[in-house]
Write a structure and sequence with these properties.
The chain is of the alpha/beta class. Helix content is 27%, strand content 27%. The protein has helices spanning 7-21, 29-37, 69-78, 96-102, 115-127, 164-168, and strands at 58-61, 64-66, 86-90, 107-112, 133-137, 150-155, 170-181, 186-194, 197-206.
Length: 220
């Protein structure tokens, strides 16, 4: 794979961080730095590279999307990750969110149910030398029990409720962030696990593709 990184893309990435993220209240320095480093244009098709740093989601095939930069930043900031954390991502998609996390945490475990997206993302992670990303081709709604517990879990698709099995794989003090609601509109929810149970808070309204799987929406 040819890694294309030019001054044009670097400048667009810098503008994205300043105008879309910092200007809208993203304050976590690690999130801003990570999104300033990850070459987002490589996570979309060549035809869409010039639009990669725009303020909107983009299609990546198979009825899936790469999320708007601001929502990636919001979700990443919401899990309050540290450099020693082990993070589970449900829904690899393009691989962009996992790459942002990989810039910030010890290890990322990411699951994708669509094989072509899984294979493409794995090749890109290898090309970009993200050796701390572990991938799996599976139903993400059942989590990754053999690697649990996780310090944070990030679900990049919207489901009708938070799967209990994912909550069970969260470490004490861990944070889970997920869009929850109908198929058309959701609220971004953060759940924190403590010694006494789970605390939930609503962060914002959002719209994601469906979380499909055993503990999500059924495939149509």
């Amino acid at each position: 794979m040819q890694i294309q990184e030019t001054l044009k893309f670097r400048r667009r990435r810098e503008a994205m961080v300043a105008e879309q993220l910092q200007a809208r209240g993203i304050h976590d320095a690690a999130v801003l730095a990570a999104m300033g480093r990850v070459p987002r244009h490589l996570f979309v098709s060549e035809a869409l590279m010039d639009q990669a740093y725009g303020d909107y989601p983009l299609p990546i095939g198979y009825q899936q999307t790469i999320s708007q930069p601001q929502i990636v930043a919001e979700m990443t900031q919401a899990i309050a990750a540290s450099s020693e954390d082990r993070v589970l991502e449900i829904g690899t998609g393009s691989g962009y969110q996992a790459a942002v996390l990989a810039e910030m945490v010890f290890r990322v475990y990411t699951i994708e149910r669509l094989q072509p997206l899984y294979m493409k993302a794995r090749r890109l992670f290898d090309a970009l030398k993200y050796h701390n990303i572990v991938t799996r081709y599976s139903d993400g709604t059942t989590g990754w029990k053999s690697e649990a517990p996780f310090d944070a879990i990030l679900v990049t698709a919207g489901g009708p409720s938070v799967p209990e099995i994912l909550l069970s794989q969260l470490a004490e003090g861990g944070r889970l962030v997920m869009p929850v609601g109908s198929a058309d509109v959701q609220q971004l929810v953060r759940i924190t696990r403590s010694s006494s149970g789970f605390e939930s808070e609503i962060l914002c309204s959002c719209r994601f593709v469906k979380l499909v799987g055993e503990n999500g929406w059924r495939e149509e």
